[in-house]
């Protein structure tokens, strides 16, 4: 009838019940005031009869029960005072058993029984046993659960536990345990029985009601966990077997998972560790009952809690216990905790074929967390877990569940966070195999986490084998996976990814040149598969890493030849030439040119003239064939001139060829000012201010004179197009070059040359082509004149030279 009733009906029935309790409680209180025992028992029984209703849901019944409970507390106070009712407690215990209905009788009996135990006129174990047995007379699930809950509540402080006033020769802690276990067993049976009441159409409502009642059953386990005197031996031999027997045999999923959760939460961690095998055996049996009942329950009401939650909670508690103190770790070794947990998880996953992949991954994450806390030095255990994960993932065609993907990332991140060293993770053979099951996006996320870990911990990858494994792990960043198009990627994200790879390359190092060359070859092999968008980011750090090795070899004063790879500058330059050639065809000619010039300078430092000349040749070819933008040409020619100036390895013939090319390209730039500046920069190719530097003053002067002619032409073009000659900046810049070479002792630069140039600039500043005088000043020219005057005033050898210049 209750199953079909609405909310309004339940509210009406609850109100009627409360009214009945209040009505009879009024007469009961009047009888209490008059110390009339007969009337007290009469009206208390009538009051408690209101609890016989079957119309209320557990929540509404609880409200009614609490009204009656409050009245029973006052009734207990009356029973304690023998002077008020005039009966010995033994006779009172007998008297209340004559109540007409069993439910009021049992509530009265529990209330008097509490007073009976407190009087100590009988052993508490006998009274408790009598009460728990007699409560079997109430078999209605909800009424029986609340009755036994009342019994547990009134007897909690009267259990004969160690340190209790009720402990004695006739009462032992085992009696307390036996009473709680028996009450728990009966309550669990009543709780499970609720699901079999009523038609199947209300099964979902029944499950909800059962969920509301579960704390009544779980409180018994909390009491067991708090009883003083329940040591490990008693827990192992009596408490746990009895509780697990009830859990497994009830064959009810909701009861099984809730009670297992209670067991894990209420009993001490050290007890769980010492009884781990028993607990795990029970976990693997939970599915037997659950699977047998699946055909009965609609899929929509299957409990959300499952075995993986139980196992995960157990492993989390044991992990925290292991982390609490290093002194307890030996206990885990003694009981072989890892082997037992690993086997149990394997059985659960193999048996539960329908378990979602996210469930299996969650179990593996918990097991790995446990392992890293308890056995951080056992990398074989970690690899074993990853291997089991690979097997499970291999059974799935494609991992698409976002939650499962998140768990896999957590699984892969755990070793990085624990060891703070990617090198340790690289020794795990199954680590890359797990990553292979991630989708492209998640693979990149994981790759970025690996690189960030390396940067954060400043880890150095020092062997070619480990670099090979590492680059397999981060392959999602260095090449396209499964034909994905990099054009679809967000530009900022793409640049951040590639910059991370570039930073990573600088973390690869080995003091042994032979091994370092192997590392460079491994990196190059992977980077060359990156596609045209990635190479401009990844090739430069590879080139500079190789040049660092070249300079290391040069400082050691010789080549190093190993069994497989010859670590020689010449060999490295061959690799670099091939690498930059790929970059130049991307096309990214400006970057390739810069790298060629860097290599040329390094080859010069190693006295390898042929290699340096080849790199310059490649740079000029790029300049001629690939660089068409005028601004890029200006930048490139100045880079070429600057690099060529610093190199002193070339013989006369090769140097003449290169300088001739440089000056020729300088004079053919598009804009006259650019031509001028490039040509006067070429003067430094013929006069290098160091001990071994070339000093061809005549050719340097020729470059300056040529620059002066170009500057004059630029002025004339400006006058023709704009009607004025424009600024004299180019002339001033050339004047500064004259002064520089004059100071450095170029015999072909004379004071008269400088004097003539100053007069030319003054003339250009004071008049235009129509002969009109104008007032015009140039800050650069003013500063230059100020410098000449300063040198005159300073005196000495330099001052004497400047005395010949008249301002």
From TrEMBL:
Keyword line: Cytoplasm, Endosome, Golgi apparatus, Membrane, Protein transport, Transport
Q: Where's it found, cell-wise? A: Cytoplasm; Endosome membrane; Golgi apparatus, trans-Golgi network membrane; Prevacuolar compartment membrane
**Can you cite a GO biological process for this protein?**
retrograde transport, endosome to Golgi
Membrane-protein topology: Peripheral membrane protein
Main localization (coarse): cytoplasm
Q: Which GO terms describe its cellular component?
A: cytosol; endosome membrane; Golgi apparatus; retromer, cargo-selective complex
**Coiled-coil annotated spans:** none
* InterPro entries in alphabetical order: ARM-type_fold, Vps35, Vps35_C
For this protein, the record's Pfam families field holds: Vps35
The family this protein is said to belong to? Belongs to the VPS35 family.
Function of this protein?
Answer: Plays a role in vesicular protein sorting.
- Official protein name in the record: Vacuolar protein sorting-associated protein 35
Print the organism lineage. Answer: Eukaryota, Viridiplantae, Streptophyta, Embryophyta, Tracheophyta
């Amino acid at each position: 009838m209750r199953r079909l009733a609405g909310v309004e009906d339940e509210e009406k029935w609850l109100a009627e019940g409360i009214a009945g309790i209040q009505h009879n409680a009024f007469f009961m209180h009047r009888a209490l005031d008059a110390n009339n025992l007969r009337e007290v028992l009469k009206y208390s029984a009538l009051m408690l009869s209101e609890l016989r209703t079957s119309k209320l849901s557990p929540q509404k019944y609880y409200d009614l029960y609490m009204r009656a409970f409050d009245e029973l507390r006052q009734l207990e106070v009356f029973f304690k005072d023998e002077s008020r009712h005039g009966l010995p407690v033994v006779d009172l215990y007998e008297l209340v058993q004559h109540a007409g209905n069993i439910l009021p009788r049992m509530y009265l009996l529990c209330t008097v029984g509490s007073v009976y135990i407190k009087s100590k006129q009988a052993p508490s174990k006998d009274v408790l046993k009598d009460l728990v047995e007699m409560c079997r007379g109430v078999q209605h699930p909800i009424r029986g659960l609340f009755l036994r809950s009342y019994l547990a509540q009134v007897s909690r402080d009267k259990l004969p536990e160690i340190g209790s006033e009720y402990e004695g020769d006739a009462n032992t802690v085992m009696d307390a345990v036996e009473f709680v276990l028996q009450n728990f067993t009966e309550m669990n049976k009543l709780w499970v029985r609720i699901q079999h009441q009523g038609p199947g159409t209300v099964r979902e409502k029944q499950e909800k009601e059962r969920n509301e009642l579960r704390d009544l059953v779980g409180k018994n386990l909390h009491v067991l966990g708090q009883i003083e005197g329940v040591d490990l031996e008693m827990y192992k031999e009596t408490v746990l077997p009895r509780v697990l027997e009830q859990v497994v045999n009830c064959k009810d999923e909701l009861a099984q998972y809730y009670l297992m959760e209670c067991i894990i939460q209420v009993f001490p961690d050290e007890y769980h560790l010492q009884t781990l095998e028993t607990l795990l055996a029970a976990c693997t049996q939970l599915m037997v009952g659950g699977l047998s009942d699946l055909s009965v329950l609609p899929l929509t009401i299957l409990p959300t809690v499952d075995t993986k939650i139980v196992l995960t909670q157990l492993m989390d508690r044991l992990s925290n216990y292991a982390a609490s103190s290093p002194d307890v770790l030996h206990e885990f070794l003694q009981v072989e905790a890892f082997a037992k947990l690993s086997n149990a998880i394997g059985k659960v996953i193999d048996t539960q074929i329908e378990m979602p992949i996210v469930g299996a991954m969650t179990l593996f994450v918990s097991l790995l967390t446990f392992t890293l806390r308890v056995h951080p030095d056992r990398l074989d255990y970690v690899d074993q877990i990853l291997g089991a994960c690979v097997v499970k993932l291999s059974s799935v065609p494609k991992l698409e569940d976002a939650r499962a993907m998140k768990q896999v990332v957590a699984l892969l991140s755990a070793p990085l966070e624990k060891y703070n060293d990617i090198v340790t993770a690289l020794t795990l053979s199954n680590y890359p195999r797990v990553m292979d099951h991630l989708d492209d996006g998640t693979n990149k996320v994981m790759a970025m986490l690996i690189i960030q870990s390396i940067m954060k911990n400043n880890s150095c990858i020092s062997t070619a084998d480990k670099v090979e494994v590492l680059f397999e792990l981060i392959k999602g960043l260095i090449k396209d996976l499964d034909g994905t198009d990099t054009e679809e990627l967000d530009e900022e994200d793409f640049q951040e990814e590639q910059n991370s790879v570039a930073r990573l390359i600088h973390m690869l190092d080995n003091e042994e040149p032979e091994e370092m060359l192997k590392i460079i070859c491994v990196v190059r092999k992977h980077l060359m598969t990156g596609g045209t968008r990635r190479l401009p980011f990844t090739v430069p750090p590879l080139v500079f890493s190789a040049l660092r090795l070249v300079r290391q070899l040069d400082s050691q004063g010789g080549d190093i030849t190993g069994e497989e790879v010859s670590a020689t500058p010449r060999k490295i330059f061959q690799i670099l030439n091939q690498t930059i050639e790929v970059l130049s065809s991307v096309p990214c000619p400006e970057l390739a040119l810069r790298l060629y010039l860097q290599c040329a300078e390094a080859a010069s430092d190693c006295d390898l003239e042929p290699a340096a000349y080849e790199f310059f040749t490649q740079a000029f070819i790029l300049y001629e064939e690939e660089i068409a933008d005028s601004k890029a040409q200006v930048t490139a020619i100045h880079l070429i001139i600057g690099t060529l100036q610093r190199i002193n390895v070339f013989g006369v013939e090769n140097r003449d060829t290169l300088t001739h090319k440089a000056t020729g390209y300088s004079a053919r730039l598009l804009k006259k000012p650019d031509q001028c500046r490039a040509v006067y920069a070429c003067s430094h190719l013929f006069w290098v201010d160091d001990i071994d530097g070339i000093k061809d003053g005549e050719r340097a002067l020729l470059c300056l004179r040529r620059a002066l002619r170009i500057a004059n032409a630029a002025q004339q073009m400006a006058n023709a197009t704009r009607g004025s000659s424009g600024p004299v900046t180019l002339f001033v810049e050339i004047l500064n070059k004259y002064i520089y070479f004059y100071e450095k002792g170029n015999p072909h630069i004379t004071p008269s040359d400088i004097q003539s140039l100053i007069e030319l600039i003054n003339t250009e500043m004071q008049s235009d082509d129509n002969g009109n005088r104008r007032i015009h000043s140039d800050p650069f020219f003013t500063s230059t004149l100020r410098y000449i005057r300063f040198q005159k005033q300073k005196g000495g050898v330099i001052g004497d030279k400047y005395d010949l210049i008249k301002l």
